[in-house]
Amino acid sequence: MSNTPLLEVSNVTKQFGGLAAVGGVSLKVRKGEIMGIIGPNGAGKTTLFNLISGHLDVTAGNVSVNGQDVTQVGPARRANSGLGRTFQIVRPIPSLTVLENVMVGAFASHRNRRHAEKHAWETLERVELTHRALVSAKSLTLADRKRLEVARAVAGKTELLMLDEVMAGLNPTEADRAIEMIKRLRNEGLSVLFIEHNLKVVRALADHVLVIDYGLPIAEGTPTEVLANQKVIEAYLGVKKAAK
Amino acid sequence: MTLDLENTSQKTTLKSPLKSWGGFVVGMLILGIISKLISADGYYNSLANAGFLFGGLATAWNILGGYCGQFSFGHAVFVGIGAYSVALTKTDHNWGTIPGIILGIMISIAVAMAISWPLFRLRGSFFAIGTLAFSEVALSLAMYFTWTHGALGVQIPFERLPIVDQKVWLIVFFVYLVFCMGTSLFLIRGRIGYYMISVRDDEATAAASGINPLTIKTIAFAISAALTSLGGSLYVLYLGNLDPRAFLSTLEIGAFIPLLALIGGLGTVVGPLLGALFLEPGQTYLRGQFAGSLAGISQGTVGIILILAALYFRHGFWGAIQGLARRLQRISKGASK
Predict the structure, then answer these.
(1) Residues 6+ apart with CB under 8 A from B252
(2) Which of the four, A108, B165, B307, B337, has the lowest number of CB atoms within 10 Å?
(3) Closest residue, chain B, to A52 (C-alpha)
(4) Separation in Å, CA of B305 to nearest CA in chain A
(5) Cβ contacts (< 8 Å) between B13 and chain A: which residues?
(6) What is the pTM of this model?
(7) What structural domains does chain B harbor?
């Protein structure tokens, strides 16, 4: 493991008018690590994700990838410097086939269409979606759409895969398959930063967990440590219930 | 899971034969032969001329409006730039034809890139309104300045026109059409084409895939403007007379070109040509039929066609044909089982 973390987020803040959606969050993801971000609804997880991927501009703070400050650059250049993301509400390109959607990602490193197509086939195999390759992206089931999102991100220059609730809406079998897929991608060399509600998934996947509530970090550590933390229990269940 | 990767990667991602170069060459050959056959009659020759010219213009527009989803009502400006560049350099400065055309293309690219920056801050219909305003301003300016000959327009002396034979013009317009459609096909088969479609469908996803939407839109705009300018240059050389109200007209050029692409099939390679071959000669025919009767009835008919197309076949003629082909395929598959 090298000394510079793959992703370093220091003290990022996002102010929407008077409301601080994210109020000073710092985190580091090292190469090969899987990090989870959890927190109750409206805690600012997705906003934090958008700040990291560049889909929103920070009010204050810095984001660096491989030691390079990317705070001032747009989402496209951040994607090319190694940040690949999925969206909570899946957004495939509807007028393209599944394979072509993945090719859009693959073109980042393969200018030639043949090469991009070949790379897209390989990527589809990694996420087990080859059997749906030639159908239109809008005809996929939710579980397959989420796989497609992952494939599109992985096909690019992604080193850190950012998954925004990739398990939401999946049934337990599908979720188990998705967990296996993410583990496999990590073993193949990717680092992962994910947002998740399902604590079973967090336990199964994360090396490290950051908990945020009202846009502020309230706990950090291994899944076991964090899930036993009093503040985290209060944030999830409310103060009164926790006291009972 | 076992998968025969060698075999599957041989399959093309593009199912339609008209998206392949082979299909393109065959289609263009057939079109060329048909146009050669009908050109024996002067009337049909002139209809084919207009059909091919507007087919090329609609194809050029479709690169920005169809593939990239940026609905421009301002392409009359580029028709105008192409036309003025040739007409003014020819009549006032004694330039040759080709340098004038190239000048027009350069200016069009520069203008497209310059206005991309403010205009692409506007989304959807606001972008369309912005381009409309831009077109109206261009018309006012063209009529105001003396170096553009103001409202009088430019009359190119007959002896300065490089081509006067209708049959030769048919070849020129056919080559223009082939060039525009070839460019369109080349783009849509490659990286930029996929990027344009991504930007059209979802800018956030495009950005997450490392695509800068503004860059892609600007590239699409510049290519589209360059091809449109070339068409404008040819048009003025064909007519010999530049009336600013005709060349920079929103009704006859700026909104008419998108209409052709829309009716033929937005965002497809073949659609804009189908729309132009149907509507452009169709409108000329109607104008002839209704001449002397109710004013504006030919435009009215075109308007009704637009409404019907918007209501009943959103994917245009080409979409309807593809739908029919798919249905036939399904029926024949069912029959063979």
Answers:
(1) B246
(2) B337
(3) B208
(4) 26
(5) 97, 99-100, 103, 117, 134
(6) 0.89
(7) 19-336 (1.10.3470)
- Across the interface, do A113 and B195 touch by the CB < 8 Å criterion? no
Report residue B96's pLDDT band, with 50, 70 and 90 as the boundaries.
very high
**pLDDT, chain B, mean:** 88
Q: Residues B5-48: pLDDT tens digits?
A: 444 433 444 455 567 888 899 999 999 999 988 888 888 898 89
- Nearest-neighbour CA in chain A from B210: distance (Å): 4
Model pLDDT for residues A112-165, shown as the tens digit of each residue: 999 999 999 999 999 999 999 999 988 899 999 999 999 999 999 999 999 999
How many Cβ atoms sit within 10 Å of the Cβ of residue A126?
17
In single-letter form, the type of residue at position B252 comes to E
State the virtual CA torsion across B252, B258, B263, B266 in degrees, nearest 10: 170
In chain A, what are the domain boundaries? Answer: 7-243
Rounded to a whole number of angstroms, the distance from the CA of A199 to the nearest CA of chain B is 27
Assess B211–A contact: CB distance below 8 Å, yes or no.
Answer: yes
Listed in order, strand segments (DSSP E) in A77-224 are 83-85, 160-164, 191-195, 208-213, 216-221
Query: From the CA of A79, how many Å to the nearest CA of chain B?
Result: 5
Query: Is a pLDDT exceeding 90 seen at residue B123?
Result: no
Residue B201: its chain A contacts at CB < 8 A? 93-96
By the 10 Å C-beta count (0-12 exposed, 13-18 middle, 19+ buried), B95 is classed as middle
Question: Any CB–CB contact under 8 A between B13 and chain A?
Answer: yes
Q: Given 3.40.50.150, 3.40.50.2300, 3.30.450.40, 3.40.50.300, which CATH number is that of A7-243?
A: 3.40.50.300
Top residue of B13, B21, B192, B203 to mutate, by most chain A CBs within 10 Å, is B13
Does pLDDT of B137 surpass 60?
A: yes
CB contact under 8 A, A99 and B13: yes
Start-to-end CA span in chain A (Å): 44
